[in-house]
Specification:
- With 74 residues, the chain is mostly helical.
- It contains three helices and no strands.
- 0% of the residues are buried.
């Protein structure tokens, strides 16, 4: 068997999910997108739906309990 430097390439294709948000959370996402656009000097805010994945990533990356449990289960 040939030894390669690379192992299997993980499947990084985006996965589409549908979620229902409370109206207040959606309003906050819209406001966040507007503030983000202003702070970056952009004329139009990004689609609020595009903020969900980076926010979830950031939340999980900084959750010490989650990361500890993830390491223990690995």
């Amino acid at each position: 068997m040939t030894k390669l430097k690379l192992s299997a390439i993980p499947d990084d294709r985006p996965v589409k999910i549908t979620v229902e948000l409370p109206a207040a959370v959606h309003r906050d996402l819209v406001a966040y997108a507007e503030i983000l656009a202003r702070s970056n000097g952009e004329k139009a805010p990004p689609d609020p739906a595009k903020l969900v994945a980076p926010m979830l990533q950031r939340f999980m990356a900084t959750d010490k309990g989650f990361n500890r449990a993830k390491r223990e289960n690995a």
